[in-house]
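User: Can you predict the 3D structure for this chain?
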Amino acid sequence: MNRKRIQRLMRKMGIQSVAPKPYTSKACPQNKIYPYLLRNLEIIMPDQVWCSDLTYIPVQKGFVYVTAVMDWYGRYVLSWELSVTMDREFCIAALEFPYDVIKHLKFLIPIMVLNMQALNLQRYQLIVAKCEV
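Assistant: Here is the predicted structure, written as structure tokens:
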């Protein structure tokens, strides 16, 4: 069976794929482009750089959103949160949990690279200020 036959049969049966369609991640031209702060930074110890990502999982009645915070040095997940709505509270909770765990270690200054789609700039600055020693 080739691709055209599958397309014809799916069209005839009235079904379609649930796979993401092309161009689902087109950037809006009005959005600000933030500079890449880690270009020449050598990552030499754990908790030196954290990253955060937000993604979605299609389910039968909509989407489930997942945010994760990872350590770049060890490439392990520090925390993650699930939500059925795309609000910023669950992203903030995922970011605050690892900070609360390591805040007793005063010599660490994590640099957070946040997904600005989920957090506004004011909250980002507040979290970065909390992490500074």
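The radius of gyration is 20 Å. Confidence is low (pLDDT under 50) at residues 104-120.
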